[in-house]
TrEMBL record:
The keyword Cell membrane does not apply. CDD domains: MogA_MoaB (cd00886). InterPro entries: MoaB (IPR012245), MoaB/Mog-like_dom_sf (IPR036425), MoaB/Mog_dom (IPR001453), MoaB_proteobac (IPR013484). The keyword Transit peptide does not apply. Pathway: Cofactor biosynthesis; molybdopterin biosynthesis. This is Molybdenum cofactor biosynthesis protein B. Pfam families: MoCF_biosynth.
Length: 176
Protein backbone atom coordinates (compact mmCIF):
# COMPACT_ATOMS: atom_id res chain seq x y z
CA UNK A 1 0.00 0.00 0.00
CA UNK A 2 1.38 3.40 -0.89
CA UNK A 3 1.22 5.95 1.87
CA UNK A 4 -0.07 9.45 1.39
CA UNK A 5 2.73 11.99 1.93
CA UNK A 6 2.55 13.98 5.16
CA UNK A 7 2.07 17.18 3.16
CA UNK A 8 -0.81 15.78 1.11
CA UNK A 9 -3.75 18.16 0.71
CA UNK A 10 -6.99 17.75 2.63
CA UNK A 11 -9.55 15.62 0.79
CA UNK A 12 -13.14 16.68 1.50
CA UNK A 13 -15.63 13.86 1.94
CA UNK A 14 -19.33 13.86 1.01
CA UNK A 15 -21.24 13.28 4.25
CA UNK A 16 -24.91 12.65 5.10
CA UNK A 17 -26.08 13.60 8.60
CA UNK A 18 -29.08 11.94 10.22
CA UNK A 19 -30.88 12.76 13.44
CA UNK A 20 -32.95 9.86 14.74
CA UNK A 21 -35.75 11.30 16.83
CA UNK A 22 -39.48 11.21 17.36
CA UNK A 23 -39.51 14.75 18.78
CA UNK A 24 -36.74 16.86 17.21
CA UNK A 25 -37.43 19.38 14.46
CA UNK A 26 -35.10 21.52 12.34
CA UNK A 27 -35.68 24.29 14.89
CA UNK A 28 -34.23 22.32 17.83
CA UNK A 29 -31.96 19.69 16.29
CA UNK A 30 -28.83 20.76 18.16
CA UNK A 31 -27.00 17.44 17.66
CA UNK A 32 -27.58 17.21 13.91
CA UNK A 33 -26.76 20.90 13.52
CA UNK A 34 -23.54 20.43 15.49
CA UNK A 35 -22.43 17.53 13.27
CA UNK A 36 -23.28 19.41 10.07
CA UNK A 37 -21.47 22.55 11.26
CA UNK A 38 -18.37 20.65 12.35
CA UNK A 39 -18.17 18.64 9.13
CA UNK A 40 -18.50 21.77 7.01
CA UNK A 41 -16.04 23.73 9.16
CA UNK A 42 -13.54 20.88 8.66
CA UNK A 43 -13.93 21.25 4.89
CA UNK A 44 -16.26 18.34 4.14
CA UNK A 45 -19.43 18.62 2.06
CA UNK A 46 -22.69 17.75 3.83
CA UNK A 47 -24.80 16.46 0.95
CA UNK A 48 -27.92 15.89 3.02
CA UNK A 49 -29.20 16.38 6.57
CA UNK A 50 -32.36 14.54 7.61
CA UNK A 51 -34.45 14.01 10.73
CA UNK A 52 -36.14 10.59 10.80
CA UNK A 53 -38.45 8.93 13.31
CA UNK A 54 -36.95 6.18 15.44
CA UNK A 55 -38.50 3.40 13.35
CA UNK A 56 -36.18 0.60 12.28
CA UNK A 57 -37.77 0.17 8.85
CA UNK A 58 -37.77 3.88 7.96
CA UNK A 59 -34.18 4.08 9.20
CA UNK A 60 -33.14 1.02 7.24
CA UNK A 61 -34.67 2.47 4.05
CA UNK A 62 -32.87 5.80 4.53
CA UNK A 63 -29.51 4.20 5.33
CA UNK A 64 -29.94 1.84 2.36
CA UNK A 65 -30.54 4.79 0.03
CA UNK A 66 -27.34 6.46 1.21
CA UNK A 67 -25.36 3.21 1.06
CA UNK A 68 -26.43 2.78 -2.58
CA UNK A 69 -25.63 6.42 -3.46
CA UNK A 70 -22.07 6.78 -4.79
CA UNK A 71 -22.22 10.50 -3.89
CA UNK A 72 -22.36 9.64 -0.16
CA UNK A 73 -19.17 8.21 1.33
CA UNK A 74 -19.85 8.83 5.04
CA UNK A 75 -23.04 8.76 7.10
CA UNK A 76 -23.09 10.14 10.63
CA UNK A 77 -26.24 9.57 12.64
CA UNK A 78 -27.18 10.80 16.09
CA UNK A 79 -29.84 9.25 18.28
CA UNK A 80 -31.53 5.91 18.73
CA UNK A 81 -28.47 4.16 20.17
CA UNK A 82 -29.68 3.93 23.76
CA UNK A 83 -31.37 1.03 25.51
CA UNK A 84 -35.00 2.12 25.73
CA UNK A 85 -37.79 0.44 23.81
CA UNK A 86 -37.81 3.15 21.12
CA UNK A 87 -34.04 3.05 20.49
CA UNK A 88 -33.69 1.04 17.29
CA UNK A 89 -30.74 2.44 15.32
CA UNK A 90 -28.47 -0.61 15.92
CA UNK A 91 -31.25 -3.02 14.99
CA UNK A 92 -31.95 -1.02 11.81
CA UNK A 93 -28.37 -0.54 10.65
CA UNK A 94 -26.23 -3.47 11.79
CA UNK A 95 -27.84 -5.93 9.32
CA UNK A 96 -26.72 -3.62 6.48
CA UNK A 97 -23.01 -3.74 7.33
CA UNK A 98 -20.41 -5.60 5.30
CA UNK A 99 -17.92 -5.03 8.14
CA UNK A 100 -18.12 -3.58 11.62
CA UNK A 101 -15.55 -1.14 12.98
CA UNK A 102 -15.57 -2.49 16.51
CA UNK A 103 -12.89 -0.13 17.76
CA UNK A 104 -15.13 2.88 17.18
CA UNK A 105 -17.68 1.97 19.84
CA UNK A 106 -14.95 0.82 22.19
CA UNK A 107 -12.99 4.06 21.83
CA UNK A 108 -16.11 6.20 22.04
CA UNK A 109 -17.09 4.62 25.36
CA UNK A 110 -13.53 4.93 26.67
CA UNK A 111 -13.43 8.66 25.89
CA UNK A 112 -17.01 9.13 27.09
CA UNK A 113 -16.20 7.42 30.40
CA UNK A 114 -13.81 10.29 31.18
CA UNK A 115 -16.71 12.71 30.75
CA UNK A 116 -19.80 10.93 32.11
CA UNK A 117 -18.46 7.98 34.07
CA UNK A 118 -20.24 4.65 34.14
CA UNK A 119 -23.31 6.10 32.37
CA UNK A 120 -21.42 5.45 29.13
CA UNK A 121 -22.40 1.76 29.35
CA UNK A 122 -25.89 2.81 28.22
CA UNK A 123 -24.49 3.88 24.84
CA UNK A 124 -24.59 1.50 21.92
CA UNK A 125 -22.52 3.78 19.66
CA UNK A 126 -21.14 1.79 16.73
CA UNK A 127 -19.66 2.04 13.24
CA UNK A 128 -19.22 -0.03 10.13
CA UNK A 129 -18.86 -0.15 6.39
CA UNK A 130 -21.59 -0.96 3.86
CA UNK A 131 -20.98 -0.87 0.09
CA UNK A 132 -17.91 1.30 0.63
CA UNK A 133 -19.80 3.80 2.81
CA UNK A 134 -18.53 4.56 6.32
CA UNK A 135 -21.34 4.72 8.86
CA UNK A 136 -21.03 6.13 12.37
CA UNK A 137 -23.98 5.92 14.77
CA UNK A 138 -23.73 8.20 17.80
CA UNK A 139 -25.88 8.86 20.85
CA UNK A 140 -28.42 11.67 20.56
CA UNK A 141 -26.96 14.22 22.96
CA UNK A 142 -24.98 17.12 21.58
CA UNK A 143 -22.30 16.36 24.18
CA UNK A 144 -21.91 12.82 22.86
CA UNK A 145 -21.69 14.15 19.30
CA UNK A 146 -18.97 16.57 20.41
CA UNK A 147 -17.10 13.74 22.14
CA UNK A 148 -17.23 11.58 19.00
CA UNK A 149 -16.40 14.41 16.60
CA UNK A 150 -13.47 15.85 18.53
CA UNK A 151 -12.06 12.58 19.81
CA UNK A 152 -12.51 10.30 16.79
CA UNK A 153 -14.29 11.60 13.71
CA UNK A 154 -12.47 14.87 13.01
CA UNK A 155 -9.02 13.25 12.92
CA UNK A 156 -10.14 10.01 11.28
CA UNK A 157 -12.02 11.77 8.47
CA UNK A 158 -8.98 13.98 7.78
CA UNK A 159 -6.75 12.51 5.08
CA UNK A 160 -3.73 14.24 6.67
CA UNK A 161 -3.96 12.38 10.00
CA UNK A 162 -0.99 10.08 10.62
CA UNK A 163 -0.20 7.28 10.90
CA UNK A 164 -3.55 6.35 9.32
CA UNK A 165 -7.13 7.49 8.86
CA UNK A 166 -10.45 6.37 7.41
CA UNK A 167 -10.36 9.01 4.67
CA UNK A 168 -7.36 7.47 2.93
CA UNK A 169 -8.91 3.99 3.10
CA UNK A 170 -12.34 4.74 1.62
CA UNK A 171 -11.15 4.11 -1.94
CA UNK A 172 -10.00 0.63 -0.87
CA UNK A 173 -13.21 -0.53 0.84
CA UNK A 174 -14.39 -2.27 -2.32
CA UNK A 175 -11.26 -4.38 -2.79
CA UNK A 176 -11.71 -8.14 -3.11
Amino acid sequence: MSRTPADAPFQPLPIAVLTVSDSRTEADDTSGDYLREQAEAAGHKVVEKVICRDDRYQLRALFSRWIADSDVRVVISTGGTGITGRDSTPEAVLPLFDKTVDGFGELFRRISFQEIGASTVQSRAFAGIANGTLIFCLPGSTGACRTAWEGILAPQLDSRTRPCNFAQLIARFGEH
